[in-house]
User: What shape does this take?
Amino acid sequence: MLNILFFTPLVLFFLAVILGFFGILFHKEQVSRLSWWLFLGGTAILTAYLAARGVVAGRIPLSNQFEFATAFAWGIAVMLIAVQTRAKAEWIRVAAMPMTFLVLSYAALQPREITELMPALKSAWFALHIGSAVFSYASFVLAGCAGVRYLLISRKDHTAGQLVQIDYLSYRMVALGFLLLTVVILSGAIWAEQAWSAFWTWDPKETWALITWILYAIYLHLRLRKKLSGKVMAWMVVIYVPVVLFTFVGVNTLLPGLHSYG
Amino acid sequence: MKQKILKFLRSMTFGMILLGLIVACSLAGSLIAQGKEVMWYVKTYPGWYGILLKLGLNNVFYSWYFLVLMVLLCLNLTLCSLVRIRRVYRAAKNAVPNAAKRTTDIPLSPEKLAEFCAYLEDRRFRKTEIGDAVVYSKNSLGWYGSFLTHLAILLTVLFGAATLYLPQVMDETCLPGETLVMADGTEIAVDSFHIEDAQGNLDYASKIHVTLPDGRSSGIQEIRVNHPFGFGGYKIYQQTYGTAGAVTVRDKATGAEDPFTLTENCFLSADGRNGVWFEALYPDYSRDESGNFTLISQTSGRYSNPVYQILIASDGVQTPVLAFPGETVTVGGLEYTFEAPVEYPGLRIKQTPVIVNILLCGAFCLMILGLWFCFFGSPALVTVRPDGCAIGGPKPQGTRMELAALLEDGIQEKEEEKC
Ligand code: HEM
Assistant: This one.
């Protein structure tokens, strides 16, 4: 049953991506709408899957590489729906739906068995630390998706107003992601003091979170310089996405350290 | 010249250069393993270990240049914050009077203007009338967001450095029943330790008590991973664990007996010809049909089937033997009875000024608050005049878009009405 709940969203996201492209390519509004409904359905089922997994495991499902990646895909999907609803930015789907599908596909490649929570992860800080990481990185990915859109349409004949709107949305996503990443790093530091006796140990995961944080801080400051064009800013948020992905899922496997629970 | 240097030192450009260099060091420090033996680098990086070691890339975060970068960052943050606070205070104080001086840059019809004003009031903007202008303002504390953020970063670096360098940290193993005595006379006693709880789940919990030199006692406290215990300036962490063999040695002639924990491994007579040599304790074993043993050396929890590997020396002849808990080996007039192994904790004992931790956590809270003000509580100022409005504040874009969305919605509503 759990497997069905996991693979159904994967299939629905795949169909949503294909239909989404088809809808844009052939200007079929109804196909685009169907793609969006499939995506919404997939997200609802993925939510149910994570809830069910949490109930079966008796804990928050965020404790290994598979659960991180699944929650990350879910985070991107939820943020996408929120952005779409609040900012009416339908264009962001084009890049964000494939990203959700790709991250969930990566999760599908990981071992899925439910394991007991390690003593080191049994802490009140666990949910805040990893929960905010999911939404922080999802915000950065959506900022990157907005950046892709900006770069694509800035070549064509589009109004400056549209570009400003995209640029501003991208900035807001970075701002949210940055605030949440700060929460991740600071709650992690307090947790590290409880678990390992030091607020900071230069563990690879900590170091990469700091690298990501500083890179986005540089982005925020460069934005303050009005001379820099929207295009440069868009390139920055796009180029940062692989760094975010590496920090969230890559470091645990490639750079072993205290965080290598997955 | 002096002015120019000072201007550069407090500039954002210099700050960004420093941040870029910190990123570069962090990249090196995460991709190259840190703090290993020199020979490890010689073997792992045969071509360029020389330059790697010369540049201190084996210990980047404790190198002199990283320290210099952090000091310069603190200097830069201090100087730019000092300059900024005066400017920010003036901008915050005069925000509304200055906004009232703005001329209209978005012409609006009286209808639209009324709609926009109602929207602003709905969003809890404060209304101030100055001359012919009405200024709607919100989030006046937001002016201090970026100042608070930078101040908090500065404090985090300073207090963070204090928490890294001030505490004295000791790692000690301690068998249950034993006591560690600190330099100031404080006693830390381990009463018991278990790896697994009663249900067989990994737990790693120690029961300890601390007695201060003045005689005050903490009473028995349980520590486990994520749950250290602090008392009298000491903080004690459940850090590692181990399992040690136990043997009781009895002199057959006198009946005297002594229990030993097998941290010692040699129980030989002075001439070395008789006795027991303890080689290893294995957590588990398997046995095939023909009675051959396979010893298992890996386990994550309790030793389920412990077995001792020993050498028995009898008149100079050494025989390897496996001994199981409860078994007795007699050699050289002594009886060696192997007992169930003992689980023991590795404790990390940190002597730290608690105030520094509290100040650091305060800086963390300040940083979150500052960032919230920067991004979600940024000041918004709208100047309304009969012919339209002007949108001001440090980030007018957001309010401009809200207005644009409002006007668009208005148009859509009208079109729907027409339909
Ligand atoms: C450790 C890294 C730093 C972080 C995380 C950081 C964070 C921030 C944030 C969040 C903002 C507001 C941006 C916005 O509202 O969009 C900001 C603004 C600003 N930062 Fe930094 N900052 C850092 C280092 C620096 C340094 C070293 C300087 C050097 C002078 C600096 C100078 C400024 C200035 C001048 C502003 C804009 C002025 C203002 O809003 O009052 N920052 N910074």
Remarks:
- The CA atoms of residues 20 and 94 of chain A lie 7 Å apart.
- Residues 160-196 of chain A form the longest helix (37 residues).
- The mean pLDDT of chain A is 90.
